[in-house]
């Protein structure tokens, strides 16, 4: 759905949901309600930003140097990694983190809830390009609820006649005061694959996660809530989830961020990715007809 006036007529909600085109040609849905603001790009079904009114600063980080172009993933927000996480297991020519984040999605419904939150349903558009990369019959949808909290459900239905194995993540970039001033609780004692610098060593988390260098970890068998404690912004962000057995913690640090070209000079200091995923040993197998739902809820609150 790229026709703006048709999209606004069908799914716009006066004063609350509006579609617009941004420089670079992407169509973005802007959501604004009594609880706060969010923006969702139709490319990738990508929640680009979320700023609840209770917070001085946004909770979901979007790089000031993000590039907006057809077929290119946006640096920040909530990229949807699907149907594989990281490099493709067999074909390095295929895009990292799957194709869902760079293909068109379409809105299938919008509504305002009684509590003033806005609910948006999106579906991955069937394209020949996606089919060529992953030739299976499947239904993929997102349900985004923008309220006092941000909830996102990523739903996969196997409509084929054989088992499907998927990797996935809601690859969320959270806005923080400074990378040196946060700690992440909820992963204590968990085993992780340490991918920083291209490795894959297995380690165990000792205490809360504190970052002091490039960090790229897949925490395995982790279903509990994570909490990002931010001493600089004097707040904590709660990351609750279900249907997700891996948690990825990522920050590229300075040298890698410089090479990536869309972080800006110090962007990497203001973000941390805490991704609710099913990756590595936690892939999901769907039998024909089965449905899998990965759900997250983000909430921010002042530190006591
Ligand atoms: O630059 P991309 O493709 O969005 O990926 C960013 C990072 O995403 C993380 O999830 C991966 O663990 C990292 O290895 C990767 O570098």
Automatic annotation (TrEMBL):
EC main group: isomerase
GO MF terms, alphabetically ordered: carbohydrate binding; glucose-6-phosphate 1-epimerase activity
Similarity-based family: Belongs to the glucose-6-phosphate 1-epimerase family.
Taxonomic source organism: Sulfuricaulis limicola
GO BP terms in the entry: carbohydrate metabolic process
The protein's name in its UniProt record: Putative glucose-6-phosphate 1-epimerase
Enzyme Commission number(s): 5.1.3.15
This protein's GO CC annotations: cytoplasm
InterPro entries: Aldose_1/G6P_1-epimerase (IPR008183), G6P_1-epimerase (IPR025532), Gal_mutarotase_sf_dom (IPR011013), GH-type_carb-bd (IPR014718)
Catalytic activity: alpha-D-glucose 6-phosphate = beta-D-glucose 6-phosphate
Keywords: Isomerase
Transmembrane segments: none
Lineage: Bacteria, Pseudomonadati, Pseudomonadota, Gammaproteobacteria, Acidiferrobacterales
Active site: 171, 275
């Amino acid at each position: 759905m790229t026709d703006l006036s048709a999209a606004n007529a069908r799914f716009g909600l006066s004063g609350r949901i509006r579609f617009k085109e941004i420089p670079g040609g992407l169509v973005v849905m802007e959501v604004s309600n009594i609880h706060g603001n969010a923006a969702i790009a139709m490319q990738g079904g990508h929640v680009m930003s979320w700023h609840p009114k209770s917070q001085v600063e946004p909770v979901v980080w979007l790089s000031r140097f993000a590039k907006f172009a057809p077929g290119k993933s946006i640096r920040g927000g909530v990229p949807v990694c699907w149907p594989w996480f990281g490099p493709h297991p067999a074909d390095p020519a295929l895009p990292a983190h799957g194709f869902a984040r760079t293909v068109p999605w379409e809105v299938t419904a919008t509504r305002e809830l009684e509590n003033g939150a806005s609910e948006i349903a999106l579906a991955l558009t069937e394209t020949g390009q996606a089919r060529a990369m992953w030739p299976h019959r499947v239904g993929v949808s997102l349900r985004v609820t923008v309220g006092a909290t941000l909830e996102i459900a990523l739903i996969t239905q196997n409509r084929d006649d054989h088992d499907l194995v998927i990797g996935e993540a809601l690859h969320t970039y959270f806005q923080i005061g400074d990378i040196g001033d946060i700690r992440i609780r909820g992963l204590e004692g968990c085993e992780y694959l340490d991918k920083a610098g291209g490795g894959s060593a297995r380690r165990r988390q000792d205490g809360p996660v504190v970052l002091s260098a490039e960090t790229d970890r897949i925490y395995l068998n982790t279903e509990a809530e994570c909490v990002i404690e931010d001493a600089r912004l004097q707040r904590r962000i709660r990351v609750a989830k279900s249907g997700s057995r891996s948690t990825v913690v990522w920050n590229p640090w300075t040298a890698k961020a410089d090479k990536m070209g869309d972080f800006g000079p110090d962007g990497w200091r203001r973000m941390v990715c805490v991704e609710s995923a099913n990756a590595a040993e936690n892939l999901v197998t769907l039998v024909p007809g089965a449905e899998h739902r990965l759900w997250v809820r983000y909430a921010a609150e002042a530190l006591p």
